[in-house]
Amino acid sequence: MLNIAICEDNREIISFYKLIVNKFILEHPGSQIRLSLATRDPYEMGSYIEQSDGEMSFVYILDIEFAGSSKKGIELAQMASRHGDNVKIIFISTHEEMSIVSFRYRVSPLDFISKEDGMDRVKKILSQDLENVLLETDSSKKEKTFMYSVGSRLVKVKFDDINFFESSTNPHKVVMHTKYGTAEFRSSLKTLAESSGDLFRVYRSLLINVSNVLSIDGKYVTFKDQTKFELNSRLLSRIKAWLSS
Q1: Under CATH, what is the fold of the domain 2-138?
Q2: What is the DSSP letter of 155?
Q3: Chosen CATH of 158-244 out of 2.40.50.1020, 1.10.3720.10, 2.40.440.10, 3.90.360.10
Q4: Which of 10, 63, 112, 175 has its CA 20 to 30 A from that of 87?
Q5: Average pLDDT of the chain?
Q6: pTM exceeds 0.70, yes or no
Q7: What sign does the CA torsion over 19, 24, 27, 31 have?
Q8: Percent of the chain with pLDDT over 90
């Protein structure tokens, strides 16, 4: 999830920034982006930064000076940079001279956009900055993996390669079916089901990776690698209901 937060004390300008961000979100329906905060109060922004999840991605769009407040945009940027690793700062201000001061605060903004260039140019540059951040965020997404132990050896597989798990004939073990074959290891379907929201327990001895289901047709569940699994109509209905919920 890419969170975008804005702090600008001018009512008309912050409304303009919100329009730009909301348009950007609408233009990228397949991406997880949200305008998580738009405020004219730098202290509210400070509280938001302190309470934010340091593991998530953030873009902070900040002015440098706020009317009637001693809190500066550079201070907010410094707080944000310390709070998380996936943070981008975009300053939009008339105070271009502060772009040099930002280095003294050990803040490295993604961009410094001058309001003096006009709002059309602000819109163009801000939109491009957001596009660049999104591309970087998408390319750095960690691939989801599944890990299991065989004796003292730890094995890692791509979660997208897994089709389903079933109970083994050997006590306290399960069999994992992937697009490349099978593997047996010590675990339980209950434990596996609790480890991921993409694993659906169809019945007592079967757990399906629903994110890998391509289609449900007739008596069969077909996975993305074209592997087919036969089930009765009642169980197929359960999977369909889960997928549509």
Answers
A1: Rossmann fold (3.40.50)
A2: E
A3: 2.40.50.1020
A4: 10
A5: 87
A6: no
A7: negative
A8: 48
